[in-house]
Amino acid sequence: MPTATWNGTVIAQSDDTVIVEGNHYFPADSIVAEYFEPSPTHSHCRWKGEASYKTIVVDGKRNPDAAWYYPDPKPKAAEIKDRFAFWKGVTVA
């Protein structure tokens, strides 16, 4: 089962991930919500649309904008709506 960890802690786990461009997108209900804080950061992908970000906080350590998701993706990326992907040192195995 794909598992996302950061700072030695499981932050998401699901056997229902969607892989796009080599990234596992986890369902929103599979993340451990207590480790995520809102972020004002956004970015734009030409074919997926506008991404929103969350900061991961575990044991007082912060990983700004290490999780992203598409709340309203373009039609070609509909399968990743509200799913979370990770970077910045988050391990998915």
List the helices and strands and how they pair.
Layout: E1 3-6, E2 9-13, E3 18-20, E4 23-25, E5 36-45, E6 49-58, E7 61-69, E8 84-86, E9 91-92
Pfam families: NTP_transf_9
Protein name: DUF427 domain-containing protein
Domain DUF427: 4-88
Keywords:
mainly beta; three-stranded antiparallel β-sheet; 0% helix; 53% strand; globular
Structure characterization notes:
The protein is an all-beta fold and 93 residues long. The protein is built from no helices and nine strands. It has strands at 3-6, 9-13, 18-20, 23-25, 36-45, 49-58, 61-69, 84-86, 91-92. The protein has a four-stranded antiparallel β-sheet with strand order 5-6-7-8, with no helix packed on it. The model has no long low-confidence stretch (mean pLDDT 98).
Poorly predicted ranges: none
Written as H for each helix and E for each strand, in order along the chain, the element string is: EEEEEEEEE
Kindly report the average pLDDT value.
98
Tell me what portion of residues adopts beta-strand conformation. Answer: over 45%
Radius of gyration: 12 Å
Structural class: mainly beta
Give the N-to-C terminal Cα separation.
8 Å
Largest sheet: 4 strands, antiparallel
Care to count the β-strands?
A: 9
Gross morphology: globular
Strand order of the largest sheet: 5-6-7-8
Tally of alpha and pi helices: 0
Protein name: DUF427 domain-containing protein
InterPro entries: DUF427, DUF427_sf
